[in-house]
Amino acid sequence: MDVIQTILDFIFHIDDHLVRIVSDYKTWTYLILFLIIFAETGFVITPFLPGDSLLFATGAIIANPESGLDIMVMCILLIIAAILGDLVNYHIGKYIGPKAFSGKYRLLKKEYLVRTQQFFNKYGGKTIIYARFIPIVRTFAPFIAGVGMMRYNKFASYNVIGGILWITSFLFLGYFFGGLPVIKDNFTYVILGIIVLSVLPPIIELIREKMKKSKP
Hints:
With 216 residues, the protein is mostly helical. Helices cover 79% and strands 0% of the residues.
């Protein structure tokens, strides 16, 4: 319970925590945020790490000249972290997937692998790009792409596009608008709003699917 409270406190008061990190670690902040973004996208066991809110808050803090951080350096580093994270997650899925679906190590039905492969063959590009903007989903999408044997070249191109769009959009939104008084004075609510808007699309899609199934 304490761990959950700590994570929630970090997410909803991420601006205060980032200010402390920048103050205590200076240029090491680049590495710290690089590792957070890499882990959040690279390992299926860390989907709880902040993503959208972290990027927005980072941009807002860098906008203050006293931070001593450069927005372009941060942007390039975090784009690399996001791309590498998905790349690692893809290969983990590719390595674990076949073993989980075959032989004496069979953990899941083979039909699941076939369905996943068909899904990514049809929607792969949009899935990898859109997933960047949906918490938790962005952590599992590259893993499932690897399990489903999505072609590497196809995955890599969408991975790069998605990583660039995700990092630049939230980072620069924070950089240009995070310093506005109305946002600074209500930063916790802004972060909550970002989280709600991020998880809204899959919830709406889930409701639509249930409504379709319930129709006679």
